[in-house]
Amino acid sequence: MSDAEAEADPESEAAAAESTDRSPLSVPEASDLIDRIADNVARVIVGNDAAVEHILVTVLARGHLLLEDVPGVGKTMLARSLARSVDCEFKRVQFTPDLLPSDVTGVNVYNQQSGEFEFRPGPVFANIVLGDEINRAPPKTQSALLEAMEEEQVTVDGVTRELPDPFTVIATQNDVEPGRTYELPLAEVDRFMKKLRLGYPDRTDESEMLDRTAGRHPIESLEPVATTRELRRARATVGEAGVSEPVRDYVTDLATYTREHAQLGVSPRGSIALVRAAQARAVLDGRDYVVPDDVQTEVRSVFAHRVRPRTGSESGVDVVEDALSSVAVE
After folding, report:
1. CA atoms within 13 A on the CB side of 131
2. What is the pTM of this model?
3. Which of 202, 227, 324, 326 has a CA-to-CA distance to 121 between 20 and 30 Å?
4. Is 242-330 CATH 1.10.150.320?
């Protein structure tokens, strides 16, 4: 093949474009991107800056987020604000008791004109998927997300299809109607990198929120401030943040403590999630390496929901707090 033919080769051009599409941003560029998205989300979400940072850390660390709280505190609005801030495909699934797994993943439909079955993708085929009130659907339907969340692919009728990149599930959970909801399977809970509670706003923040929403809701005018390409490149930046052996050992020791002091401790998947979250936190703070402070900032939201205490008087957060006070930083 001549040089001219090589230059005109579409496959070579496509490979070069894909390589550029996934090349890491510099740490300052990635940090600036995170700040732009956070500031944009803050135009809608008042007084939850820490939660916004946590959700951005989750997305950049290739994880999924579970928001649990009482109705009406802005769980769904937070997810929508993030999706609108990035120029990406967003789908919402309203989980209900009669929802079927195929309503999430997609289904093969017979086309009478072509005489063949055609796959109609479900809402899981999007960059950001909002699973609204996920615990209202039975476990069989919830399990439709397991393969997607772990392997970023979906298998329907024996055929496996890749999901878009990036792919993040943000699920909300109602915690005040136990008689009308289902408990999430442990296998699914463990696939969520973080679990957060927003809580009620304070007096000043609620007053500001009422002022912003008295007329047209601010989310209606929210415009994207980042592209999916930038998000992929920022994820690559996070993946290259250095994690030294002492930091890795610290994460391992924290996880081991939970296993030794609880009925069910943190899985290796949880340890991996903590390292990735700490990498994202480091980049958010403008560093290309992880320090123990990053681990300590992220460990509560990453570990607590994976821990099942031995007694009813303890919570997962209590066990994690004990781990932080007992495990020394080398």
Report:
1. 34
2. 0.87
3. 227
4. no
